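tokens incoming
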């Protein structure tokens, strides 16, 4: 019986990065939908121009890919929390979303867009409450999704 329990624990740990990918994709799709409704130029111009691309489909795809990678980073953190409840995962996710906003949206994105000569180059720092709300939503959905996958 102990071997079975141990195997289950290892299985969850081994799958943590996969849970992070899927939870990150789900969260990025939700955030992306908000962006399409409230920040369309970011999805259609800013994000794709980071990679010398254009259009909403490219922007949405890149945004979801970023969300997947950032979901794996969240999973790496979450695996260090053995007492992770759904409430804690949501709280960590919201905090993570705020950190992502402060670092990636406020600082990194404007610098990157300036470096590639994007026509959608925002000011530095790029402080936007709408973007903050989107990142908080990303984090909350990431936390609840990751927790749900981890508990199955």
């Amino acid at each position: 019986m102990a071997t079975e329990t141990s195997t289950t624990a290892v299985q969850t740990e081994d799958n943590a990065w996969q849970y992070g990918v899927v939870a990150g994709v789900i969260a990025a799709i939700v955030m992306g939908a908000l962006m399409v409704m409230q920040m369309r130029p970011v999805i259609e111009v800013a994000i794709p121009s980071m990679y010398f691309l254009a259009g909403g489909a490219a922007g949405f795809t890149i945004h979801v890919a970023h969300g997947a990678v950032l979901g794996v980073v969240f999973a790496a953190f979450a695996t260090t929390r053995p007492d992770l409840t759904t409430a804690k995962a949501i709280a960590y996710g919201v905090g993570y979303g705020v950190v992502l906003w402060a670092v990636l949206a406020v600082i990194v994105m404007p610098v990157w867009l300036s470096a590639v000569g994007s026509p959608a180059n925002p000011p530095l720092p790029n402080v936007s409450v709408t973007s903050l709300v989107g990142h908080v939503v990303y984090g909350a959905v990431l936390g609840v999704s990751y927790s749900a996958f981890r508990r199955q």
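note: The chain has one domain: 15-151.
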